[in-house]
Amino acid sequence: MRHVYVVIMAGGKGERFWPLSTGNVPKPFLNITGDKTLIRLTAERAMRIVPEARIYVILSKQQLSIARRQLPFLPAGNFIVEPEGKDTAPCVGLAAITLLKEDRKATMIALPADHYIADIDGFVKTIKDGVKVAQKGEHLVTVGIRPVRPETGYGYICVSGKAYPSEGLECYNVRRYVEKPDVRRAKAYYKDSRYYWNAGMFIWKAETILGSMKHHMPELYKGLLQIGSHMDANRKGMIKRIFGDFTRISIDYGLMQKAGNVMMMPARFTWDDIGTWASLGRILTPDEYGNCKTGSIVGIDTKDCVIHGEGVTIGTIGVSGLVIVAVKGSVLVCDIDRVQEVREIARRLSSKKDI
């Protein structure tokens, strides 16, 4: 596909996968689902769409060395280092500015580094159709996942009528974005065919996303232009200062919820963001008692648990509905219904510089 580039966003901390995930080795760089790490699997999916030379990774400096080790087939210059984490809006903007330096006609596919996608053929078909839509005009294209359960941990996209119905493209106009709902609303969205999960995957021309930032996020746009002017001279100190002044904000909050030119492609593949330890229950095959176990585990009267051990044997008796993790000299024991709160442990330890 001409002028098409993939940008893998790998700057997250993966705090909800403590203690396995740390600041130096966050979730994308872990092989949670098998023999390959999540970022490696993401890059291999991207290679079904574009050649290695057009795959970029945007990440923090502390993740650069491990990313290069895990993705040795990517050119060294294709790793974009963020001066500091500022969430996805500055991340996307920096990637767009970088691509435009390479190709004024660049179309950008932005993918999170830590998603689980089993149906690669369906993924490739969805993304390629999304590229067609993005290149037709000034569209901001996102990917939506049809809900398979009432989920309160995801944002939702509400769509209206089909776009380009005569051209064989299943694409919808986005009516509005909805923040993470309560249980009542999640159940209603699950039953309503207009609502999809927001997967955080995007497709757009680099010029289009920057033009939208100019309209909806003018301060960010101004700063990105300044960064672009300093790239050729390799003025890293100036770039770091400008980037450091950016507001920390997601692309959804800052732009997608405001823009009127957003289209959504329904995913033709199964998907999971593997956001918490509990999500492994949807990926791994449970035993006859509903336990998902990795490592050396001995369980007696144990059911509906997620148990992960590395370098240690874990024994359980008479427990249910728990997440139990023992790695790197740390142990997590958590009610499976409260796994979203694991990030608070990581943050408290980080503030004490113990992680």
Describe this protein's structure.
- The protein has helices at residues 38-46, 64-70, 88-102, 120-136, 183-191, 206-216, 218-231, 236-244, 251-256, 280-283, 342-351, and strands at residues 4-9, 55-60, 79-82, 107-112, 140-145, 156-163, 171-178, 195-205, 262-266, 292-300, 306-317, 322-327, 330-335.
- The radius of gyration is 21 Å and the shape is globular.
- The longest helix has 17 residues, at 120-136.
- The chain folds into 2 domains: 4-266, Alpha-Beta Complex (Spore Coat Polysaccharide Biosynthesis Protein SpsA, Chain A), CATH 3.90.550; 277-351, no CATH class.
- It has a 5-stranded mixed barrel. Strands 10-11-12-13 form a 4-stranded mixed beta sheet, with no helix packed on it.
- The chain contains 11 helices and 13 strands.
- With 355 residues, it is of the alpha/beta class.
